[in-house]
Amino acid sequence: MTQPENSRAGFVALIGEPNAGKSTLLNRMVGAKVSIVTHKVQTTRARIRGVALEGASQIVFVDTPGLFRPRRRLDRAMVAAAWSGAADADVVVLLIEAHRGLTEGVEAILEALNERAPDRPVALAINKIDRVKSEALLALTEKLNAAYPFTKTFMISAERGHGVDHLREWLAQEVPAGPWLYPEDQIADLPMRMIAAEITREKLTLRLHQELPYQLTVETESWEERKDGTVRIDQLIYVIRDGHKGIVLGNKGETIKAVSQASRAELTEFLGRTVHLFLQVKVRPNWLEERERFSEMGLDFNDGD
To answer: Is domain 8-174 in CATH 3.40.50.300, yes or no?
Structure first.
């Protein structure tokens, strides 16, 4: 791994309310899809690290689960993971949706930031700026900076890429001086088995709409490297009821077939080789209370207490 003499490296936590655009920003920063992106809230469960290079700096982004009021064990573990990611980071970026502004949820995050990350530089990134007029944007910026002493404020559109380069350049100067933490060609520190499971879970979430996105999980059961250069991936989809299994399978298996095709196509593109994907749906009524399932998602079971 060749590194410049003046190398810098550090962790940057992306925090915010659910659906603020954190995963989209992470993927834009890294230049590849490493985090699940859907129109639904609370889709990121684990702290997904994406690695980006900017000049002599290596920026390790931590895409945390959205911060919200937790109700279940899984919710509590997700929120704990988000704050843990912020506390461990060198720099924190708070992402706020321009059209939603200073919500009660954002106010709660600002209040908690003083306790959870008191010594960290915190940048404000106002996202989805194309949805509001410039006068409203200026007023919102003043209001937010009056509510919290942000180190820097950025106006961005994570989806379109506006302002993202400026944010990345600033972060490159903010991370500490030191050797890079990951190989130059590595874009994420998640095991490929987990990335593969996340890709399939995204396809399920998109396909099933409002039916049961938070009551299923995907695990990569086996990963077989074949002599011809292809890979066979077997995955289990856990649901909590028999009725949910029927929804995932769909009429004559149409839903699971469409999910499998979409996931296989993306995995093939992501890995750069042919993927043979096999999906199986299993009913596991208590998976939301099983320690092993939390470990598979990169979450601490005890954080849900």
So the answer is: yes
